[in-house]
Amino acid sequence: MMTFVLASDSALAGHPDKLCDRIADALVDACLTAGPTVVNAECAVASGVVFLALRHAGPMPVDPAAVARRVIAASGFGDDALPAERTTVLVDAARDDAMARGAGDGEAGGMATVFGYACNHGAERLPAPIATAHALARAIDAARAAGPLGWLSPDGQVQAAVECVRRRPTRLRGVALRLAPLPGAPPPAEAEAALRAAAIAPALAPLWPEAAEAPPLSVAFVAAPRGPRGHAGLTGRKTADDGYGGFCRQGTSALSGKDPGRVERAAACAARQAAVTVVAAELAEECEVQLCYAPDSAAPISVEVDCFGSATVPEAEIAERVRRGFDFRAGAIVERLGLRSLPAARGGVFYAGLAAYGQMGRLDLDPPWERPDLAALG
Amino acid sequence: MLRQVSSLPVAMLGVSAAVSAVSGGGADALATLAVVAVNAALGFATESQAERAIRALTGDAAQPVEAVRDGATLRLPAAELAPGDLILLGPGMQAPADARVVAARALALDEAALTGESVPVAKAPADDLAPEAPLAERRNMAHAGTIVAAGEGRAIVTATGAATEAARVQALTHGARRPASPVEEELDALGATLAKISLAACAAVFVAGRLRGYPLPVILRDSLALAVAAAPEGLPMVATVTLSLGLRKMARRGVLIRQLSAVESLGAVGTICLDKTGTLTLNRMAATAGAVGLGEADLDAGDAAERFAALAACAALNNDALGGGGSGTETALLGFAGRMSVDAAALAARRPRRATVERRPDRPWMATEHGGRGPRLYAKGAPEAVLSLCSHWREGARRRPLDDAARAAILRLNDRLAARPARVLGFAQGARGEAAEGRVGGLDWLGMLALEDPLRPDAKAFVSALRGAGVEPVLVTGDQGATARAVAEALDLGGGGEIRLVDAGALGALPPGLLAALARDSHVFARVSPSQKLLVVRALQEAGRVVAMTGDGVNDGPALKAADVGVAMGASGADLAREVANVVIRDDRLETLVEAVAQGRAIHRNIRRAVEFLVTTNMSEILVGLVEAARGPGELETPMELLWINLATDVLPSLGLALADPDEDAMRRPPRARGEPIIPPGHFRRVALDGGLIAAATLAAHFAGIARHGPGPRTRGMTFAALSLGQLFYTLVSQRSDPRKLRLDRLLENRTLDGALLASIALAAAPHVTPGLRRLLGIAPLGAADAAAAGLAALAPLAAVLARRGLLLSLDGAEARPR
């Protein structure tokens, strides 16, 4: 395992799975802002119909269908491809007041294993493959919205393969795009040139200066319609994209749509913060923090740290300092990071912003878990 | 009368009489004809009385029509309209005559009744139509019987009554007769099937007799006696009479049935689509909360009139209720303006309306342009839609641009107000611009009003009664999702479980089948436009439900008509709904609607019991006849005996069965399935078994008679007594179509049936004690031992059924209602 290539995926913001993630997280935002109400939202979209399955404690303070429509209206598909007003929304809402007890006050409820990871491949402390994929997806979306790539459907996929030696990125091995040009798009050769100029080169320049001009690129232009009319979407299907792109171990639980008091989501943020802190303190080049929760205890029954041999001090000491420095009880995490008051503090939208381009390493949104807590490590 | 005589069973009796006359049985022939005549006369009298009742009770309660004649506006009954009258058409109204549209404002008619076209057709004046233009293309004609789905207009009557297109189409399809209700058609078919079976039995007896070489007159007499035995004389009448008695009972309880088939559908209703306004609410809409600019404001605060001044002016001017018309919403807004000390009439006089952009299904707002001093444009409508027309928000003299944060704050406020639950409207004004298509925009957001219509106090109990009866209540409303959800939660529509809500976008654009799948398990349809209500009703029907729908008739006429049961609720604005609904709840109580469903179920169940009884007993007669005929000449009963038995045991007991009250658990059980036959396949087994029981007991008496007396009048007397009384006693256990519900102590609870049985037993006993009748029937008086044997045989089937109920539980399980 001296040398390996790892490919990580990202999706454009209009990918149906990501659209569902965004709708689910928009509901979390809306409920936290208006209530605050504990909600768990699942979303599926197919055939122009949006299905919402909600479980919430207390009265539902917002109109879930209206929230979904607002997300759709802003999704960039336009009124012809996906008319928000004419979309039928099926809302299946169950009120479960017992949820309010479970959320936030530290009861794990069941077993959960959660991983957090950080490394020093770049400023966002993400592994290079997933960071590259997200950077490309974001650049394509931006160029599409700004005009130069206006002929693209908001739905598309990005893959970036990076060669690593001793877990350090050395070379961009390849970029694969799956995009859907809309009617009126330029011919493929011209389109690819525009794509390189408007999105790929600018996105790669800071990451892979030597590859930016002539990246090993493969573009598949698929026929429109894409988006929810072309294929179905579901919340929580892109968990690797939301996390670390497969560079480390990952939990099975999705993040979008879950109330941040749910242990799976809160712990994912706390584990990330702990890993970020270890790397920021230069105790290791990379760090994976594993938390395991059991029903009989609010605190994790296991806090494990793996630095993949990159630690500058003994790994056991790092693990001990993490265990001592961070309170990993769900309730404590929510309080420390202010997870449930973030949407209200940021004008009503926070978690929905994390639905595309990854939940971790989002320095653009300044999530509290990306700030190293150097004091905690002592 | 002709119908009575022309039915197949009666025809068989006629042939039987003819054969008797030819073969020398003059008395038999006369008697047969007399019985046929009596039977026909009785049937005719009963049925025509029932028909009269049905016609009287279902008669058209047509609304008067507003017409202009010689310059004066009159309210005329539809029947008094004449060609040349100018009539006014308004939403929800059924066109009273064929008329040519001369003025229209967004007028659209639902012509489904006439052309089958499911989408309302736009109507406007036109003079370029060819005379031969087909019905569906006459875009300037309002045809009688079609319903105004939207807009209003004026039209000149061109044809009335029988000269209308609707009358011509109906003449082609129905003739003048009242269309038979489904159960009547089913019974006609069942009667014909039974008649065919008995004909086949006759043919078998005839062929067997010929093969054995019996004399022809004997064979003829035997096979015709069998025909008489088998003829189910009472069958067609049972349904008609039960229905008419049921109608009368329902009318007494405030349920008006305008179409006979609705009675049965009522009993089978599996889903009730409930309109919110007027059905579940008190229809007393009023503003209860409001917001000015970005914040909520108290309507009752001292400075409310000042803070809401601009909004109240908008509510008063952008309003269609000033002329006296307008919906509950518009009226409530005028009320609000008054509360804020705005004199709407004076203001409207100062600021006359110059132009209007109408509200449409795809445009949930309305804009008006006004003269005089002040803002030129006013708009109101669904908050999100009005907000999208705005560039600024305003509170008093403060005017700020609408940024994303302000928009989000307004939308959150909207959600909160809607969840009260309330209908929320947004208001905006503009200094410039014009009220023209596509030219409204750049307005100043003023605020919102939450309009609440309190739920009826009995609405929740109504919903739980429906759920208990296996009827799914579904809320179908134009309100936004948050309002609808709050109402559904207040009513516990989900029955304690989760509430599934369909926030309708373009329901018509959904893939086929998907809407039906969605409809099957949903409790609430929100943001449904009137034309989409029709789609919801159809989707539920496609999902296999019998669908009832309540409505006020304004705009939802097509859906009311498409539903299996269209229900109009009495006093509250039901005039328009009455035109298209086939059930009217006169006292406007939700409880009465539940009662109507219970009565519908009872009527169907009573018909079922009477029919099962008739088929069972006729079957026993056929079996007895077949066995006797097979044993040789001279053993079979005479045709007169069998006729007398039918007379005594069919008509009165089946009417007694048909008059039973609803079962106590009628509303604690699921409705019958759509299309379930009057005798479910699972019940045939019991019908056959019980028919066999009666036949076996009767034959035992018959064989005892043969052993003691040989074939002849004395044996026939015993058989006659056993068969007639056996059937009558059996009636007691026919009272429960589910034999598990039989209880010894309640066999005599139905007083009507008890009376009918006493009369029938007297009829059955009369020949034994009347010498003339004895001669006519060909029986001899019974000795004490004979009478005892016959009596025992008559009680045996009753006893056997009661014993089986206790002993053969597995069999009872097999007879459970099919679901």
How would you describe what is shown here?
- The complex is a heterodimer of chains A (378) and B (819).
- Chain A has 378 residues and is α+β, with helices and mostly antiparallel strands.
- Chain A has eleven helices and eleven strands.
- In chain A, the strands form three sheets. Chain A has a four-stranded mixed β-sheet.
- Chain A is flat, with a radius of gyration of 21 Å.
- Chain A starts with a strand and ends in a 33-residue tail after the last helix.
- With 819 residues, chain B is of the alpha/beta class.
- Helices cover 51% and strands 16% of the residues of chain B.
- Chain B has 31 helices and 24 strands.
- In chain B, strands 10, 11, 12, 13, 14, 15, 16, 17 and 18 form a nine-stranded mixed β-sheet that branches. An eight-stranded mixed β-sheet of chain B has the order 8-24-23-22-9-19-21-20, with helices on both faces. In chain B, strands 1, 2, 3, 4, 5, 6 and 7 form a seven-stranded antiparallel β-sheet that branches.
- In chain B, helix 3 runs parallel beside helix 8 and helix 25 packs antiparallel against helix 28.
- Chain B is elongated and about 115 Å long.
- Strand 4 of chain A pairs antiparallel with strand 20 of chain B, so a sheet runs across the interface.
Characteristics of this structure?
heterodimer; A: 378 residues; alpha+beta; 4-stranded mixed sheet; 31% helix; 24% strand; B: 819 residues; alpha/beta; 9-stranded mixed sheet; 8-stranded mixed sheet
Helix content range of chain A? 25-40%
Overall 3D form of chain B: elongated
By secondary-structure content and strand pairing, the structural class of chain A works out as alpha+beta
Mean pLDDT metric of chain B? 80
Total count of strands of chain A:
11
Largest interface by residue count? A-B, 30 and 36 residues
H/E series of chain A: EHEEHHEHEHEEHEEHHEEHHH
Largest sheet of chain A: 4 strands, mixed
Q: Give a count of the beta strands of chain B, DSSP E runs of length 2 or more.
A: 24
Structural class estimated from helices and strands of chain B: alpha/beta
Distance between the termini of chain B: 39 Å
Kindly report the average pLDDT value of chain A: 90
Strand order of the largest sheet of chain A: 1-6-7-8
Number of helices of chain B: 31
Give the oligomeric state of the chains in this entry, treating copies of one chain as homo and distinct chains as hetero: heterodimer
Classify the beta-strand content of chain A into a percent band.
15-25%
Distance between the termini of chain A: 34 Å
Give the fraction of residues assigned to helices of chain B: 40-55%
Largest sheet of chain B: 9 strands, mixed
Number of helices of chain A: 11
